[in-house]
Design a protein that fits this description.
The structure holds two protein chains of two kinds.
Chain A lengths: L2 H17 L1 H23 L5 E2 L2 E2 H32 L2 H5 L5 H28 L9 H25 L3 H18 L11 H7 L3 H14 L6 H25 L6
Helix pairs in contact in A: 1-5, 2-3, 2-5, 3-5, 3-6, 3-7, 3-9, 5-6, 6-9, 6-10, 9-10
Chain B lengths: L4 E9 L5 E10 L4 E5 L6 H9 L6 E6 L2 E2 L4 H6 L1 E4 L11 H11 L6 H10 L15 H13 L5 E5 L7 H16 L3 E6 L2 H7 L2 E6 L2 E7 H8 L1 E8 L15 E4 L4 E7 L7 H10 L4 E8 L2 H11 L1
Parallel strand pairs in B: 3-8, 3-9, 6-7, 7-8
Antiparallel strand pairs in B: 1-2, 1-4, 4-5, 9-10, 11-13, 11-14, 12-13
The chains are: A mainly alpha, B alpha/beta.
The structure holds adenosine-5'-triphosphate and magnesium ion.
Chain lengths: ~250, ~300
């Protein structure tokens, strides 16, 4: 293992993110506040509660997930796409470092940042609603696992993309809609049965459900299933990254 | 001594179907400066890319320091520093950070004293805290060299190191290359400038259309393939070459003041005696004569266009 190489990439990525720290912290904080104003107060006043949780509190896990998913994907995809775009990838490809080590450095940094942002959103939400976390360890577990999984996913997008449009399109057309439809702001039990079945094909349902369970002990699907689905998606991403570096897909000519 | 790099029968066909390398074999001796010469598109960068692990070969094998560069890529790549042809830098980073990054990437423990020395050797130390985007093109190129040297490689690849570099900087790069050679670093450089190969290299390889057409000691190359010119300064200018003297390799030059005879130094007979006899028979006198060894450039152009 080239640990120093992994650390070099990690540090490099963290430095890049530090340069844009302000905007990356400000935007989730502002959107969290907006969600609370719109959903928590304006609309939430009309909704009594969801699965026995006040609506304001109910949306907190979904909001955190939204932040984690979008930031993980954005940071990791940009982290690997940008060196390809600049041409500086030559150095990483010619270094004595394996593909999984490159992914580890890059994904580790992206996940670190999105976990930090997720916790900032949590703290911001705490200003609006009282939060009792039922299973703190599980909560952190889901947070970390999701951040890593989607950073890996973003890493793959950054390798697949060959222009800036493609880099944007997946987060915009896939991640955000799936998060909204995945029960970030409602329990899928409020949907008609047919739609509930369709929704179960949305992997983000399992993430949000498991994460919400760790807060309030209520879930759309059992937490074990959530954990299994997350782990399954994580393994898929790891396999894909492994394949990318074995074949040199989009990295080597 | 076993070669430090052994390229054996390496071929490359790009996805587009373009054949960039056709079964290239090449050995590089430890400690030498090897210049790879070839016209645009000959396959120089492709060959370097394959050795360094950036391009996948379609066939053949490469060993670096005895390590296969695919199955034992870690050991192989640790030995190599690469300065690619294209300028590609992390524009937002400082010089110091980017060079330290390179060292870490290659798994070496931090060594600020060493980095400092590298930056000083490349006259970058004053600018160590500058962001790369604020540097000039020549400085950026030196930053890339510093990055390649940061992990103390035994082999340095320089893909057209002096393209777009002013005369002074080119001189200082040659200087640096010699210094590196003196401490035992093997250097492989590609160039379009024949003078550069002539000035720097111990051995020269010529690549054309994906094939190595020649590998030779520089001195040997010049001797073996060299053509010489015999230049006769005439006592009386000639209006035209007398028909009885006409031959393929004799021309009238300098407003009829000179006769230039080109001959092959490795030929059995150079034809000089015959020419001189015919000249005196024709009553043409000359006041001076000298010979000129053809430059590597002439050899190179002859090889690439001729065969
Ligand atoms: N990524 C690529 N995809 C397809 N063809 C390529 C690619 N890279 C290089 N080639 C082609 O392969 C051939 C060899 O290119 P290469 O860059 O190795 O030449 P070179 O000798 O370095 O040329 P130059 O002196 O111009 O740098 C060229 O015909 C080039 O167009
Ligand atoms: Mg080239």
């Amino acid at each position: 293992m080239n640990w120093r190489g992994v650390y070099a990439i990690y540090k490099f990525e963290m430095a890049r993110m530090r340069r844009t720290l302000l905007q990356s912290v400000v935007s989730p904080v502002i959107s969290t506040v907006l969600y609370f104003v719109v959903f928590g107060s304006a609309i939430g006043g009309r909704i009594t509660d969801m699965q026995g949780v006040s609506y304001g509190a109910f949306i907190v896990p979904g909001l955190i997930m939204l932040t984690i998913l979008t930031n993980s994907v954005a940071n990791a995809s940009f982290g690997i796409y940008f060196p390809r775009f600049l041409g500086t990838i030559y150095e990483i490809l010619s270094a004595p470092i394996s593909g999984l080590e490159i992914a580890l450095g890059c994904v580790g940094a992206a996940a670190t940042k999105s976990i930090i942002l997720g916790l900032i959103v949590l703290a911001t939400a705490g200003l609006f609603v009282p939060l009792d976390i039922a299973h703190p360890v599980a909560m952190i577990g889901f947070l970390v696992l999701t951040a890593i999984t989607f950073s890996l996913f973003g890493f793959l997008i950054g390798i697949w993309a060959d222009n800036f449009e493609k880099l944007q399109v997946i987060p915009l057309l896939v991640i955000t809609p799936l998060t909204f439809l995945g029960g970030a702001f409602y329990s899928i039990h409020v949907l008609p049965p047919a739609w509930q079945t369709v929704t179960l094909f949305n992997p983000i349902v399992y993430l949000i459900s498991g994460f919400r369970w760790s807060f309030f002990n209520v879930a759309d699907v059992s937490p074990g299933v959530s954990l299994a689905m997350t782990a399954g998606f994580l393994s898929l991403c790891v396999l894909a990254v492994y394949w990318v570096f074995r074949t040199g897909y989009r990295l080597k000519t | 001594m076993p070669p430090i790099i052994a390229v054996s029968n390496v071929s490359k066909t790009y996805a587009s179907g373009l054949v960039a390398l056709k079964g290239v074999s090449l050995d590089i001796a430890p400690g030498e400066i090897f210049a790879l010469l070839g016209p645009n598109g000959a396959g120089k960068t492709t060959l370097i890319g394959i050795i360094c692990g950036i391009v996948n070969a379609s066939g053949g094998t490469v060993t670096v320091g005895g390590h296969d560069n695919v199955t034992e890529y870690r050991a192989a790549r640790s030995l190599i520093g690469l300065v690619p042809q294209e300028l590609a830098t992390d524009t937002f980073e400082t010089v110091w950070a980017t060079v330290s990054f390179s060292r870490g990437l290659f798994g070496k423990s931090p060594n600020p004293a060493f980095i400092e020395q590298v930056l000083k050797d490349l006259s970058l130390y004053e600018r160590r805290h500058s962001k790369i985007m604020t540097l000039s093109g020549g400085m950026k190129r030196r930053v890339m060299i510093a990055k390649a040297l940061a992990h103390e490689p035994q082999i340095l690849f320089l893909d057209e190191p002096t393209a777009g570099v002013d005369v002074e900087l080119r001189r200082s790069m040659w200087e640096l290359i010699r210094k590196l050679r003196d401490v035992g670093v093997t250097i492989i450089l590609t160039t379009h400038y024949i003078e550069e190969a002539e000035e720097m290299a111990d051995r020269i390889g010529v690549i054309n259309k994906g094939e190595i057409v020649l590998v030779e000691e520089k001195a040997e190359l010049i001797r073996k393939l060299g053509q010489k010119q015999l230049i006769l300064d005439l006592a009386q200018p000639l209006a035209a070459l007398p028909p009885e003297l006409a031959r393929r390799n004799l021309v009238l030059a300098g407003d009829g003041q000179q006769l230039v005879y080109t001959y092959d130094t490795k030929g059995e007979h150079t034809g000089i005696t015959a020419l001189l006899n015919e000249l005196s028979a024709a009553g043409i006198r000359f006041k001076d004569l000298n010979t000129k060894q053809s430059s590597l450039e002439d050899i190179f152009v002859g090889l690439v266009s001729g065969k």
